[in-house]
Amino acid sequence: MSLLIYFAGLLIGVSIFLYLYSTIADKAEGLKKSQSKNKTQSSQTIIQSNDTISFRKRPSLPPGTRICPLCGSSLTKYEGLYATKIKQNGTNKILIMGCRYCYKEDEDPLRPKKSSI
């Protein structure tokens, strides 16, 4: 009788192990597929110019350094970004157009800008 209980327990244990192993293997395979899918999508949809590539590879800057997200120019605390508020799908979003160096190129960068503050 005890031999029968022993084999029944062993059979139940092995079946639970195989079930958990197959579940974990399926999840790992799905994760690998989704990661490779995301890599191919991101490489196809993101087209970068040479300026953007060099801007993205620049070394990290100290905390508090202000830079333009479009051209990478360093900004002083008095220089801001040109942006506009747009409504998209019922939510308000901010569209950044650039700084005074990339959006308003005709401005003289050496001339101080008047602030409305």
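That was protein one. Protein two is written in the same sequence-then-structure order:
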Amino acid sequence: MPRSQNKVASRAKRKNFIKLAKGYWGMRKNVWTIAKHHIEKGLQYAYRDRRNKKRSFRRLWITRINAAARLNGTTYSRLMHDLRVANIDINRKVLADFAMNQPEVFTKIVNSVK
């Protein structure tokens, strides 16, 4: 008995991969084996970088808080310690936003924990 193949499903799978490769350059967009390789690699990068994005934003916030804290006569580590001692629960994202967009509010926060 001959081996049966599901041509409809395999064609649909290839079609979906080619659709995902839309916008790629050269043969990456229309040659099945090359497109498949680059799509899988791109999905790996996307998975990895969704986690790296969280790290890089935290680094950015810390840098901004440190710069603003030094303008107010303290350092990042002392400021975070003083906030913890004073039981002020404010996250780095909000602190960095205050440091960039509302420096007077940030100064009040720093003065309240000194």
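Residues 69 and 78 are 9 Å apart (CA to CA). Keep this in mind for the problem set.
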